[in-house]
Design a protein that fits this description.
Chain lengths: 209, 231
C-alpha cells in the first residue's frame, strides 16, 4: 500500500514552515494547500500575479478575473496582493519565495529536473517552472515513482529536455521521501506498506544509505 | 492628442501590418484583449509573430488567429491548453520560441524600459540557454536574454481614462502592464472608460504615457477551469 495523491500532498505539507512564502505547481502540488499543518501560517504565491491565494470559490463567488497559475478559479484573502508578471518573477528570481513544490516527468540523482516536454509528442512548455527552480530557496518534487508504463522516474540522468540542472532538493513519491545528497538519493522515509526491496527495484538512481 | 476610439477596429486602423511583432497581455484566458484579437482576425493581417504567455484555447483568444493561420511564430511559455497550437507546431507549420514565463515578462519589461538585454539564471543548462551568451557573477552562471520591443502591444484593463491611464483588476493584470510598455504603439481595451480625473492617481497601474489608443470593449471573460469548492 503505497501513498495516494492526498497522502503525498499531506507529507509535503510537513515540509512547510511558519512564515514561508510558497509556490505550488499544478496537479498534486495544488492539493498541498489542504494539508497546511495547524499553527503553520504560509502565504501561497501564484506566479500569474498574486500573493495570498485563498481556497476555490463557491459557485456564487466565481470571478473570471481571479485565477491561479493552473487557470482555476480561486478566491482572495484579506492579506492578498496582486501584481504584474514581471513583479511576480522578480519575487521568484530574486529569492523571496522560500519553497516551490512541483510535479515532474523525471528527476535525476544529481537533482536535474525534467517536466516540460516530450520531444515530438507532448509540447506543453515550461511555463514558470524554469524560473521557479532557478530562483526559489528549496525545490520539492511530488510525483509518482514510476510512469504509466511502470518505468522509474528516478534516474541516473534525465532523458527528457531539462527544466533545470541540480535544482531539486527533495522528492516525495508514492513510495517514500528522498533527499538529493552528494552521490545520489537518500531515503529519508518509506511509505506505509512499502519496503526497501520495492524501492530498489523501482529506482534507477543511486540510493545512498 | 485624442487617444479614445469607438471600437477595436477603429483603434487598430493604420497600425496593422503583415509580418509585424505583437506583444499581447493576458494569462490563459484571463485578462486577454479579446476585442482586439477579434479585430485582428477580421482584418486578416498575416505572418504575425505574437509574444504572449499562452495562445488562448482552441477557438478563443489567440487560438482564433492560429485557426485562421495568421500566425507565423509564437513567443510563449505554455501552450498546453491548445490542441491546434500543438498540431501546427508538431507539423512544422508554426514557429515557436519557447521562453520561460519570467524571462518573457522581463523581456517585455526590459524592452519597454530601454534595456536591450539582461542576465538571468533561468534556463541555464537547458535548451533555452543554447546559443546564448553565458556569464558568471559571484560564482553563478547566468545567460543573456534580450529585451523585447514590439511593433504593437495589445492589452486589456478594467478601467481607463482619456489620458490612457489604466487600472487592472485582480489576476487579470498579469502580463498586461509589461506588454503595454514594450510596444511602439500600445492599444488598450477596457471594460469602462471613466471621466478623466476620477481614477485615483496613486492607484494607476499603467500611466497613460505608455498607452496610445484606448477604447471600451465588450468582454465575454470566458473561464478556462471553472473550479469550485465542495459544500
Amino acid at each position: 500500500m503505497a501513498w495516494n495523491r492526498n497522502q503525498m500532498a499531506e507529507r509535503a505539507g510537513q515540509e512547510l514552515r511558519d512564515g514561508m512564502y510558497v509556490n505550488l505547481g499544478i496537479g498534486i502540488p495544488t492539493l498541498v494547500s489542504n494539508y497546511i499543518p495547524d499553527g503553520v501560517d504560509v502565504t501561497l504565491q501564484s506566479e500569474n500575479g498574486m500573493l495570498g491565494m485563498g481556497p476555490f470559490p463557491t459557485e456564487e463567488n466565481i470571478d473570471a478575473d481571479l485565477i491561479n497559475a493552473g487557470k482555476q478559479t480561486i478566491t482572495e484573502l484579506n492579506r492578498t496582493s496582486y501584481f504584474s508578471s514581471a513583479d511576480s518573477f522578480a519575487m521568484i528570481r530574486g529569492g523571496k519565495i522560500a519553497m516551490a513544490i512541483l510535479g515532474a516527468m523525471e528527476v535525476a540523482e544529481n537533482g536535474d529536473l525534467a517536466n516540460w516536454m516530450i520531444p515530438g509528442k507532448l509540447v506543453k512548455g515550461m511555463g514558470g517552472a524554469m524560473d521557479l527552480v532557478a530562483g526559489v530557496g528549496r525545490v520539492i518534487v511530488i510525483m509518482d515513482h514510476t510512469n504509466k508504463k511502470g518505468e522509474t522516474k528516478l534516474l541516473k540522468s534525465c532523458t527528457l529536455p531539462l527544466t533545470g540542472t541540480g535544482v531539486v532538493d527533495e522528492i516525495i513519491t508514492n513510495l517514500g521521501v528522498f533527499e538529493v545528497v552528494e552521490g545520489g538519493l537518500k531515503v529519508i522515509e518509506i511509505a506505509d506498506g512499502v519496503d526497501m526491496d520495492e524501492i530498489r527495484a523501482k529506482t534507477e538512481a543511486t540510493l545512498v544509505e | 492628442m485624442q487617444k479614445t476610439y469607438n471600437s477595436a477596429a477603429e483603434a487598430l486602423d493604420g497600425v496593422l501590418l503583415d509580418g509585424m511583432l505583437i506583444a499581447a497581455g493576458g494569462f490563459g484566458l484571463c485578462g486577454i484583449p479579446e476585442n482586439l484579437i477579434e479585430a485582428i482576425l477580421d482584418a486578416g493581417t498575416k505572418n504575425l509573430t505574437i509574444a504572449s504567455n499562452n495562445a488562448g484555447v482552441d477557438g478563443f483568444g489567440l487560438g482564433m488567429l492560429l485557426d485562421s493561420k495568421q500566425v507565423k511564430k509564437m513567443i510563449s511559455s505554455y501552450v498546453g491548453e491548445n490542441d491546434e497550437f500543438m498540431r501546427q507546431y508538431l507539423a512544422g507549420e508554426l514557429e515557436l520560441e519557447f521562453t520561460p514565463q519570467g524571462t518573457l515578462a522581463e523581456r517585455m519589461r526590459a524592452g519597454g524600459a530601454g534595456i536591450p538585454g539582461f542576465y538571468t539564471k533561468t534556463g541555464v543548462g537547458t535548451v533555452i540557454a543554447e546559443g546564448k551568451e553565458h556569464k558568471d557573477f559571484n560564482g553563478e552562471t547566468y545567460i543573456l536574454e534580450e529585451g523585447l520591443v514590439a511593433d504593437l502591444s495589445i492589452v486589456k484593463a478594467w478601467k481607463g481614462d482619456a489620458a490612457g491611464n489604466l487600472v487592472y483588476r485582480k489576476t487579470s493584470r498579469n502580463f498586461n502592464p509589461n506588454a503595454a510598455t514594450c510596444g511602439k504603439v500600445c492599444v488598450a481595451e477596457v471594460e469602462k472608460i471613466v471621466p478623466t480625473g476620477t481614477l485615483d492617481p496613486d492607484l494607476i497601474h499603467t500611466p497613460g504615457i505608455f498607452v496610445h489608443r484606448i477604447f471600451e470593449g465588450n468582454h465575454e471573460k470566458r473561464i478556462e477551469q471553472r473550479t469550485v469548492r465542495e459544500g
